[in-house]
Design goal:
It contains five helices and no strands. By secondary structure, it is mainly alpha-helical. Helix 1 (about 5-15) packs antiparallel against helix 5 (about 125-150).
Length: about 160
């Protein structure tokens, strides 16, 4: 495994709360990190939302549904990062373009999912609370993106 690939996979795991567990494969290592992040994220969302008893049940049911779908979309970002790491040392223009097109596709799919679920959250919460939820989601995502931006090197060009 290339040094860059090892570094990026390690980074993804560190990003997900500094997990210090041993795993059998890179994918296991990433999944452990994602699992820890999922738990910590849910606790942060609970604290941020300040739900009433009446709001809590419907919110968490929809939250779980949304996050299950978001997990599938985010699998694409993980795959792009892994592909980048695997091709970093021998990056071609064609591969760089393919990766960036994949990033666009991921972002579009994530936005579509957010729009769909924002409407659903507004059906069970006041609009201000639905907006608050997505603000909290975006703050968490911004922290993840900032960490990735700091640690993943730019594409080498000739």
């Amino acid at each position: 495994m290339s040094t860059m690939r090892t570094f990026v996979l390690f980074l993804i795991t560190l990003l997900f709360s500094g997990v210090h567990l041993l795993a059998q494969t890179d994918d296991d290592y990433i999944e452990i990190g994602r699992s820890v992040l999922k738990t910590e994220k849910k606790a942060a969302i609970a604290q941020a939302m300040q739900l009433t008893d009446a709001e809590s049940g419907p919110f968490w049911e929809l939250y779980n549904e949304y996050n299950d779908k978001m997990y599938q979309v985010q699998n694409k970002r993980v795959a792009i990062i892994k592909d980048y790491a695997n091709n970093y040392a021998s990056m071609t223009d064609a591969k760089a373009d393919e990766l960036w097109q994949g990033a666009f596709s991921y972002q579009q799919e994530l936005l579509k999912l957010e729009k769909t679920y924002y409407k659903k959250f507004k059906k069970i919460l006041p609009a201000a609370k639905a907006a608050r939820y997505f603000q909290a989601e975006h703050k968490i995502e911004a922290l993840i993106n900032a960490k990735l931006a700091l640690e993943i090197p730019l594409v080498e060009t000739n």
